[in-house]
Design goal:
heterodimer, A: alpha/beta, Rossmann fold, 2 domains, five-stranded parallel sheet, four-stranded parallel sheet, 11 helices, globular, disordered N terminus, B: alpha/beta
Chain lengths: 340, 184
Amino acid sequence: MVSIKPANSAGTEVGQPQGAPEPPTTVWALKDLLDTNTLSMKDLELVFETTDTMVEVRERPVGRVATLRGTTVVTLFYENSTRTRASFEIAAKALGADVINLAAATSSVGKGESLVDTVRTIEAVGADILVIRHPGSGAATLAARHTNASVINGGDGAHAHPTQALLDLYTMRQHVGDLEHRKVVIVGDVLHSRVARSNLWALRKAGAQVTLCGPSTLLPRSLESLPVHEGAGTCRVTSNLGEALEEADIVMALRIQRERQEQGLLPSLREYIRNYQITEERLGNANPNALVMHPGPMNEGVEISPEVAHGLRSVVREQVANGVAVRMAILFLMATARRR
Amino acid sequence: MSPVELQQGQEVARTIRRLAHEIVESNDGADNLVLVGLLTRGAPLAARLAAAIETFEGNLPPVGQLDVGLYRDDLAHRDPPPPIRPSDIPGTLDGSTVVLVDDVLFTGRTIRAAMDAIMDFGRPARVRLAVMVDRGHRELPIRPDFVGRNIPTASSQTIDVRLTETDGEDGIYLMEGAEQHGEH
């Protein structure tokens, strides 16, 4: 792995007792997980190593442990979600935590309670960890500022979705190992995608060569508009998919939201499909073993063809399965850090 | 104060051979035996015990390794927190004789955690405990079945078991002042 010593590294190195064979341990030191840009390469390694153990735990005859007995995890979702909410709930229960699910539609949010009031109420009833999804960019950061509970950003507007990026990187590493110098192409509505942004920061830390590709109306105008964080990797932007896919190791298609058409950002779906749909034919340019990923839910026949979505290169189902183990790792690291 | 050497090289190997014989004798053979080493140093010890058993019984008992990190009662008190690592348990443990293997037996808390962990992998007919060194100071009602050496210690002392696989040499050392790593 690349060794980078970023200035804002969240982890601290601690020496092991004399004679111990383990390498220096990174200690999780973050109260919240708001985006991947606050994670150092060492933090990423710690998450992935911990995830390896969680994958093994899930494979046991009894696929759960009682480690987080006494920890309460609250999920607060202001947006619809199937996999992220379910995955956090399964992860928390597999570690023995208590889980309370709140959906904005059924909580006092419907009565006009503000986000900050809701978060304070949740803390007052005894939440240790709060997983929040919200349509507004920055909502998780705002919540974290007003509570002593640990906040995990489960997706906020077009800002960030850190656990999705972590499970994406974990899945990539399972297949191609070290991500340094690997070519990763992210295709679609990059401009509005929290998945793309969180992936970009993490992939740069890991030393990957990232290409962002899509119609110019759905791309950041310049890289300057994307705050660039430290990392050994590179990033470029192009509207030419054929060129972007050349020798790609990993191709990630993003979900196209149909309302973008109403906003005038997408002239027609048909044109998008013609130029940007990931098809078997287009993948001919990529590395023969290239992985195809999608954060879900997929619009089959729009951003990805059904053959590719369910084809041999697709790791979409693995992404979902790894999502549980990665979220177990994050919950474990955060909860044990809180107890210290 | 520099470490006091208590055992070294060939002596360690002899102790392991004796433990292997005792395990097989008490089990009436090597049938249904599963040796499970507790990470870190219990794992190579379990592998060596299995290899020793193979030399006189003819077959190699299955060997597993167990990380008890997720079952500890003191995760909140350990700084730095121990890394948690995947366990690797061979097949089902139902009906088998599981021998837990560790380097140093101290408070007994690791073994308590290991017993909880092992039950998540199946229902062994019996669980035994083999350790290289019993240094006393138990905090729980736990007692080893097979002991390499009993070494009475003061709380201020630690026992350091070194193995070629993890430390580049075989040896047992008594040290002053340091903290017993692994909190056995």
